[in-house]
Amino acid sequence: MIGRLTRTVDRISTTATEERAFLTVNNLKVAFPTEDGLVQAVDDVSFSIEKGKTLAIVGESGSGKSVTAQALMGLLDRKSAKVSGEIWLNNVELLGLSTSQLQSMRGDELAMIFQDPMSSLHPFYRVGDQIVEAMRAHRKVNPKEARREVIDMFKRVGIPAAERRVDAYPHQLSGGMRQRVMIAMALINGPDLLIADEPTTALDVTVQAQILELIQDLQKEFGTTVIVITHDLGIVADMADEVAVMYGARIVEKGPTHTIFNEPEMPYTLGLLASIPRMDMEAGGRLLPIPGNPPSPLRLPKGCVFEPRCRYASMNNGLSETVRPDLLPSGSPDHLVRCHLPQETRRRIAEEVLTTLRSGTKQQ
Amino acid sequence: MIGYLIRRVLGMVLLLFLLTLAVFFLFNMIPGDPARLTCGKICTPTLLAQNRHKLELDIPPAEQYVRFLGGLINGRTYAADSPSPVYCPAPCLGYSFLRHQQVLSLITKALPVTFWLALGGFIIWIITGLAAGIYAALHRGKWQDRSIMGLALVGYSLPSFFIGLVLIFFVVLEWGLLPFPQWVSPTDNPVQFFQTMILPWIVIAVLNAAFYVRLTRNQVLETLGEDYVRTARAKGLRERVVVVKHALRAGLTPIVTAAGLDLAYLLGGAIITESIFSLPGMGSLAVDSVVRSDLPVIAGVTLVSAAFIIFANLIVDLLYAVVDPRVRVG
Question: What is the pTM of this model?
């Protein structure tokens, strides 16, 4: 009780005068010192989300999206990762918290669903017990009530025969069921923020849609703010209110979902959109893959990090090779783009690529 | 589960049977004549033949083996037709004509000594090994880790006779902190029992703890990187719970295996430690019998020690199912 009170007092005292969104991340940087040099995994990432909304962070492997999520959860090892910047959740700055303060928030006010539900559940404990453990870390419940609450939550996340399944071990459940268990575990304490790190990557395609729908239903029901981390643009279109595209440890484009899908400006975003097969494409229509591979985080290009793979970088008289572009508003203030190309050029290129894709013109 | 147990026990019996066969023929092939050894200094050919008959060495080896097996189950009488037959009740592991004692009674006298030695040492080394291993894992790369691993390396490299002699020299002779070790049963004189056993326990524990520190540290470090440990942290659990309940528990299987087999191995006798502290256990019995070429005793000790290992294997396999629910025996 006293703990709760002091926590509340702490929170009031840390409340600044300025008005912040429910989740505000300012200039988040994460670096890992290695023997080969400093790996800047996340560089100067800023974003904010209003309560109850969904932000999608999109990018290839190694773009820094998962590290961003782990930084938010405070899961990065303080000894091996250098984290700086600000993370404000409900007007509490998370990076400045002590380990024990953070522990009391993790799993309670912010929770996370991981990519692979098999390896994310402890193989030696019953799934029900693993969830009860999450409850008891944050509040006092007697075992009977806890069990009933877990069964209720199992029913809510669509686990059939919940009374029996609470006593199952993870290996006795299917992949979809395991991910439902992970979702139940994440939601058991009613978190305000849910981070889903590639929640469907390890699942069968038929199960993916069910899990996404479930997350959205529960989000509506609980008013949870969701950050979904994915490389699957289908999920983004399905769930997100806003999209942040990450490349080479940075956000390269950010905006409302419909803007990103219909009026993308950064060539990398365009490349992502052009490289997914679409149902409305005519048979024989070509995908436009992005050439090359993501840069090594140890040897990032001097200029624009996407420059070596960009088809349009040569249109800048070498500007892209030497100068890092900034993330600047383009058109509306909520659409941010990190690109040296002039706005008109970017829009014209996007227009051309998207029309080609939509019409499915065969490129002879 | 029941079917599995029956199969395993039958397998154990078969293995033990093969073991008796191996032991029996190995000792038949060893050069030297047991009859000659029991004959004494004034040996005449008649006396030798008499002895040979008494030891039942004048019959074919196959027949000897059958009698040996029969003795295990029903007991046997050596030299039934001689004026002084020797009866060996079941389970007869043999009769030492050098000591004029049943092998089984020699072993039952030695076993409690070894049991207490092994048990005490085991408790000390498991506790210190696990605790130091976890501590080192949590401070990986720092001075705490380095000093623990350095100490473990030293402990691992020091021969047990060296540690034992150094301990006796300083603790008993130089500083007089403990009386000279003199075996006594814990029920007869608990104080003297502890005074006698504490140094042998330390010797046993140092060597083994060193190994368990490394094993535990590596296991914990490996499981600390697992996804489910990250999940445990994401739940907001305290670090101690994360490490012990989630990381250590997952890495326990190899530790359980090693511990079970090491304990069983020790029950077969800690030859050097027992010799240094003059504990009349299985190890001393074995050494003594080898020195005197008391073949029936050597065979008996070998069989009993091997039986411990075989039995420990079964226990360890059953423990797997307790430690790891994914292992379903059957």
Answer: 0.81
